[in-house]
Structures are given as C-alpha cells and as structure tokens.
Design a protein that fits this description.
Jelly Rolls, 19% helix, alpha+beta
Length: 625
C-alpha cells in the first residue's frame, strides 16, 4: 500500500470540506481508514487505485489517522486541519527565510509556530504528460529548527493569517527560481495560446534532453578544469596566510564596486583579492560572521589560508560563519577568489561588507589588493529544462490536483520581463489552468506585482511594462494583487523585506478568500482618466479613507504626461479629494499620464491612509472618461 507523498506525518488538511485520501494497493484490496472517531472503507480498483472522501473537517489538531489494507497498516501522525495555500512562481517566492536575516534576524530568532507547516514539492520536470505522483517531499513545522527553510513570503503571509484566524496554515511550495510563466502551464493551454509548439515537441525527445545535459556538463567541466589548471593563484597558493603579496605584481582596487570601465572589465576567469585586518580579541569571544555583500559571479573565500565558504552564482548574499579559533587577535588575512564566468565582475555596492562578532564590527570596505589569476573564454550558458514550457506544471502542479487548497499565492514575472507584452493573457490562461487542475473555478488567486529594481535613473521600462500587464490582470475574476513598488532593493533581484510582501498578501487573502468585505486590502488602483483642458484628472479605486502623499516634502512624485506627440514629461501632480490632477505647463493638450513608469521609479509616494502604495500605471490604450 502506498500513499501520495503529501499524505504524510505533519500534513495540513483543508478545513470545512470533504477532503480526499487516496493511494495505491493490490487490485480489489479493501482499504479502511480510522480518523477522528469515524471509520471509512473502500476497495482498490482494477488498477490498484483507491480514494476515500472524509467528512467535513473542523480546524484543529494534531490528530492521528490509521489506514489499513489486509495485514498492513499505515499511521499518519501529527495531522493538522486548517487552511492550505499553494506558493507558486520563481525565486522571490522560493527565497527562504534564512535569506532575510540581514533585515529580520531578531524577529526570526523568536519564531516558534508549529501550527504553520510547509511542504516543499520536489523540483522536477516532465514533458510527456501531467503526473499523478510526487517523487518525495516532507512536511516541516515553523519551529526554530526549520523556519529558516520556509518560503519567506509564504511564511510571513501565513503568520498574519494565523494571528488573525488562529487556525493551522499549510503551505505547499512549488516555486522554482528562474522559471518563466509558461513553464507552469499545461501543454493543452500552451497549444491554445500558440507559439510554444517547437519547444513542446523538442522536449518530448528524451535523447535530446540527455544529450544537451551531457554536453552542458562536459563543457562546464572542461571550463572549470582549465580555469583551475591555469590559475596562478592556486598554483602559488595566494590564499595561504604565509603568502607575501608584496613581492609580486598586486594592484589596488576599491571594494565594493564593479569592474566595469577598469582593466578587469573583460576578464572571464579569476581575480584574487586580499585584505589584511587587525581583529581585537574582544571580537572573538563568540560566533563570528563574515558578510561580503554579493559577488558576481562566484567566489571562494578564505581566512588565514582556510576556505570558509563558496557560492557558485551571483545572487545569494555571501554570509560565511568563521570557524571558531580560525581568527587570531591581531593581524589576519581575508582572500577572495572571484570567478567571472558570464558577467563583468563586481562586489555589489550598498551591501554589508564587514566582519561581525560579539557585538562589534570591522568595516571591510576600502582598498584591497588584487591580481588576475587566469583569463579564459566566457562560459557558454547551460540549458535549464525546468524553464521549458509545461515541464514543471506536469511534475509539480498536476500531482497536487487531489489535495484541496484554500487558494494560490503567486510571485513571478521577473523571468518574463524581457518580453512583457502578452503577459496578461498568459497569466489569465495560467489561472484557468490551475483552477481546472483543482476543479475549482473560483479558487482565489493572489499575486505579487514586481518590486522596484535597478538604478534609480534607469531608462529601461520593461519591468514597468510587466507591472502594467500584472495590474490589468486584475480583470481576471477572484484575483488580487499585492503592490511592492516600495519594498525592492535597486541592487538585489531578491529584496529581503519579505515580511511586508507577506503582510500585503495576507490582506488580499483576508478580503478575497476570507470574506472581510470592509477590509482595505490594496493601495490606490487607477480607474479612469478625465480630460479637462490642459489637465488630466485621474480617478482611483481602493482609496480607503483617502489619498495621501508619503514623504517627498509633501509633493507627489513619479507622474508624467504626454501630448499628441507621445513624448512624456514629468508632471505636476496634486491630490484633489479622491483624484489626482496632473499637468505640465508646456503641454496644452495632455493625452496620457503615467505613474511610477520605470524599473525603479525614484520617490514615488502616492498611498492611501491605510499605508498601502498606489500601483504603477499608464493610461495609454484606455478610453478617456
């Protein structure tokens, strides 16, 4: 007898419904279930499949369930009954609580909420058909030992919902970093959308997949072998504490900073950096951590000749625990071997570069020594099949169809920002797909609008265009959107403030899924535009108890208007009751307005009194009132 892997110790079953329990056994075998004082039975069909539907479940737990077939008995322990939410999308939903500790360490340290659980669906793909089974996975509880492994956005949303309703919360994490939206859609839906036929057919060829993976692995292995074999730093031991860098050709470089515009800009290979520091004995009484911001692309980091950590790609923050006894009072040496495989190297600015111990800090910013270890050709990118159309839908979403859920929390879009046009249609198709998968046409679907990202003076607007596609996706019934234009980080694709994201997701959930009709769950949403001579009057929904300016010296920022020539100019904007009036003194016939129309719009500050930010928007393409 075998059960679906989600039907296991620590699971959370959806409350107030007839939840199914299902599995496989010998054909014709009688299956018996004992749960909450009730007894159920059925027989496995000719294919060995069986399914039993429980009576409506009231929230609570922990409970125990006994399932028997002949002489065999399975016991599922520590079962909770509450609300189950699916966490979908890419890396910002997958991002674990441990990656938020620069911002939220004190708060996370006190978390002990065992009635919040998470099941991480194994990250696999299948291009042949929707699957019925998962390849593994287990439920974990939000205890001090496990909470760091939770999705951060998911956990902080669950914490809000648990505080509000005092019922157990289950999170089913299905997010995979880097995935575009089409990876999460069924083949049938993608064929209806059109444009994905070649990829769908190609990925059905297992020979093609295996050969591509073999070539990628071989190419990567050869590249790193050549890198290591030709790296003078490894040959001469530049990382050793005894190495004397004064006898060789070492230059000086400022950390943090990018290598763009310097002699290091074209280097694809390794660059070694060294810094000597004086460490007071008082820092060494407890745990010591080295924070090195983030490094592009990869690094091996040494202290006093010992490698204390390495990271293989550009996004994770470098946070390395220093083994006790490695640092000595007085002079110590830090060496970082930076590997640039694809991109121009960088120690990303405006991040922490410090040694921390016993409440003291040593600032590591400033002049470091550097020397090129080796220079080689750029490493060609690998093929990531989890990004291909329908693969993760088949293996990670389809197998969840029998497991009832309260709703969906979705954080995705970064990987579609290079081609934002049409995202709205893809999103609507995805929502239909997932609702069909769970057999619930009204399943609440709550999603995060992309945060601010990039330089403040960035002239690129592809993220703004994607946000507009997301805003207009609210046309899909039973959806809600959490605006995060104020919680991003210009220098990090993965902003750490997932607590605010989770709180705003929870507000949407309370309104959409829990029926708190009077709750203000959203910031101002553009509704329509009215033309009045040389001004545009902008109307909004979700104004709550009123529109307000947050900061900015009391002036609204981030609005622009254009005339018939389509050229947008920064506009004067003022709040007038429930509207915003915008104008530009040199544009006598304004046609369209925009708000927060940049990848990282500087100083945007329209909110409602409830403290929720207005969504970016453009009036282009909408009929005037």
């Amino acid at each position: 007898m075998k059960l679906h892997s989600m039907l296991s110790d620590g699971m959370v079953l959806q409350r107030n419904i007839h939840a199914p329990i299902w599995g496989r056994a010998e054909s014709g075998e009688e299956i018996k279930i004992s749960f909450l004082g009730k007894k159920y039975s059925t027989s496995a069909d000719a294919a060995g499949q069986w399914r039993i539907v429980l009576e409506k479940l009231k929230p609570g737990g922990p409970h125990e369930m006994r399932i028997s077939s002949g002489q065999e008995e399975l016991i599922i322990r520590d079962i909770l009954i509450g609300d189950v939410w699916v966490l979908g999308g890419q890396s910002n939903m997958e991002l674990p609580v441990r990656r938020t500790l620069d911002l939220l360490a004190e708060e996370v340290a006190s978390i002990n909420l065992p009635l919040i659980r998470q099941f991480a669906v194994p990250q696999t793909y299948n291009f042949h058909a929707p699957q019925q089974e998962l390849s593994g996975g287990r439920w974990i509880a939000a205890t001090p030992e496990e909470v760091l492994n939770f999705s951060a956005a998911g956990f902080f949303c669950a914490q809000e919902l648990f505080d509000q309703y005092q019922v157990p919360i289950g999170l089913v994490q299905t997010a995979v970093g880097g995935t575009p939206i089409e990876a999460w859609m069924s083949e049938a839906t993608l064929r209806d959308v059109g444009g994905y036929e070649a990829d769908l057919e190609q990925c059905k060829d297992e020979g093609y997949i295996q050969e591509t993976m073999r070539r990628d692995e071989e190419r990567n292995s050869q590249w790193y072998s050549q890198l290591n074999d030709t790296d003078l730093g490894l040959q001469e031991g530049w990382f050793h504490n005894s190495y004397d860098s004064s006898t060789a050709d070492w230059g000086e470089i400022e950390v943090p900073g990018s290598w763009a515009g310097s002699r290091l800009a074209p280097v694809r290979g390794t660059v070694w950096l060294r810094k000597e520091i004086d460490v007071p004995a008082s820092m060494l009484e407890g745990e010591v951590m080295l924070k090195l911001g983030t490094i592009i692309d990869a690094d091996d980091t040494y202290i006093n000749g010992i490698c204390i950590g390495n990271t293989g790609y550009m996004y994770p923050p470098r946070r390395y625990s220093v083994p006790k006894g490695l640092l000595k009072p007085g002079r110590n040496t830090i060496v970082v071997r930076v590997i640039s495989s694809h991109n121009t190297g960088s120690f990303v600015p405006d991040m922490p570069y410090k040694l921390i111990g016993s409440g003291e800090e040593l600032d590591l910013r400033g002049v470091w020594q550097y020397r090129i270890g080796t220079s080689t050709e750029e490493l060609a990118p690998s093929t990531f099949f989890q990004y291909k159309p329908s693969g993760v839908f088949n293996s990670m979403i389809a197998p969840l169809r029998e497991f009832p859920v309260k709703g969906i929390l979705w954080y995705q879009g970064e990987s579609n920002s290079g081609r934002p046009a049409g995202y709205r249609g893809l999103f609507a198709a995805l929502v239909r797909d997932w609702r069909r998968n769970w057999g619930d046409g009204d399943l609440p679907f709550i999603y995060v609008q992309l945060a601010n990202f990039g330089e403040a003076d960035d002239t690129q607007v592809n993220w703004a265009e994607l946000r507009e596609e997301q805003r207009r996706s609210l046309e899909v019934p039973r959806t809600a959107m959490a605006v995060t234009i104020d919680v991003g980080e210009y220098n990090d694709l993965h902003p750490q403030d997932k607590k605010t994201v989770g709180q705003r997701l929870a507000l949407c959930a309370r309104k959409l899924a829990y029926g708190e009709e009077q709750l203000v769950h959203s910031g101002p949403m553009f509704k329509g535009v009215e033309h009045r001579g040389n001004t545009l009057v902008l109307h909004f929904d979700h104004i709550g108890s009123g529109l307000v300016v947050r900061g900015g010296g009391g002036k609204l920022h981030g609005f622009a208007v254009c005339g018939p020539d389509g050229r947008f100019c920064p506009a004067q904007a003022v709040i007038s009751g429930d509207t915003v009036i915008v104008r530009h003194e040199e544009i006598s016939q304004p046609v369209h307005a925009r708000y927060a129309w940049a990848n990282n719009p500087a100083g945007v500050n329209l909110y409602n009194r409830e403290g929720l930010p207005a969504s970016p928007f453009s009036t282009s393409g909408l009929d005037p009132r």
